Amino acid sequence: MRRLNPDDSAGVRSYRDLDVWQLAMETVVAAYRVTRAFPADERFGLTAQVRRAVVSIPANIAEGRSRLGRGEFRHGVSMARGSVAEVETDLAIAMALEFIEARVLTELTTQLDRLSKMLFGLYRKLDA
């Protein structure tokens, strides 16, 4: 994936062209796979919470990018970054409850850290 400037109209036709959105989508798939192993009685609890939070990451990027104005895009990126922290917290709770192994948490946290850094970089570009 090539790095894209959020204002490069020749390179970015859609939020789908953004590396950060693509990584967020990969993170959704990874989180859904992990939560499949959660206990059945958590279907409406932590499983649903992790899934809602992780889905909101690419959704907020897409919504912000699709709105009119740089400030609204910044707001969407900020909301997405908050959702990353929420997912990290939810997964730490899942580990404490022994729903996932440390290795799985480390893998997902590494991906979420990368995503958070990309979102922060995009936010700073939009803030400039």
Structure report:
The chain is mainly α and 128 residues long. Helix content is 71%, strand content 0%. It is built from four helices and no strands. Helix 1 runs antiparallel to helix 2 and helix 3 packs antiparallel against helix 4.
Brief sketch in words of this structure:
The chain is mainly α. The protein has helices at residues 19-35, 46-66, 70-96, 102-127.
Shape: elongated
Q: Which structural class is indicated by helix and strand composition?
A: mainly alpha
Outline the biggest β-sheet. Answer: none
Overall strand count: 0
Distance between the termini: 24 Å
Helical fraction equals: over 70%
Percent strand: under 5%
Number of helices: 4
Instruction: Sketch the topology as an H/E string, one letter per element.
Output: HHHH
Oligomeric description of these chains: single chain
Keywords for this entry:
single chain; elongated; 128 residues; disordered N terminus; mainly alpha
Please outline the helices and strands.
Blueprint: H1 19-35, H2 46-66, H3 70-96, H4 102-127
Helix pairs in contact: 1-2, 1-4, 2-3, 3-4
